[in-house]
Amino acid sequence: MSNPPADLLARIADGVEAIERTVTELRDLQGVSRAAYKRDENRLRRDAVERKFEKLTAAVIDVGKTVLRIEQDTVPDRRKAVVTELEAVGVIDAELGEKLQAAVGFRDVLAHTYGPVVNDDIVYDALQNSLDRYVAFVERIDQYLSESDQTD
After folding, report:
1. Which pTM value belongs to this model?
2. Could you tell me the maximum CA-CA distance found in the chain, to the nearest angstrom?
3. pLDDT tens sequence across 59-75
4. CB burial string 125-152: b at 16+ within 10 A, e below
């Protein structure tokens, strides 16, 4: 990466900030028990958690596409292909790539499933166990930007 445009760096920074903020908000909900999470009166909370997972993955993909715009001439249209390309150019490793592929699949289920069809147990488990993949992505992007600054 040599002297990327400021607007692309700002877009990456905005995306990273959105991911960090959303992860913090979701971590604040981790103390809720599974039973409380699933209660009927907490439907709005469940909807909010689902939407935050969708937004997290959208931000990862947006940051990923922006990095790929810096690294190469073409950017894939498909979300999973963005993750694959980030691996190919060495921005993320295969282990993180696998976790992000799962996040994309999870996002797709949430985005295209409505009402009682969403499995609240799966979302609750993601809330408890899957936030680290987003943190790892942010750490990797920070490392990528730092390494890029040193080569300029």
Report:
1. 0.91
2. 55
3. 999 999 999 999 998 89
4. ebbeebbebbebbbebbeebbeebeeee
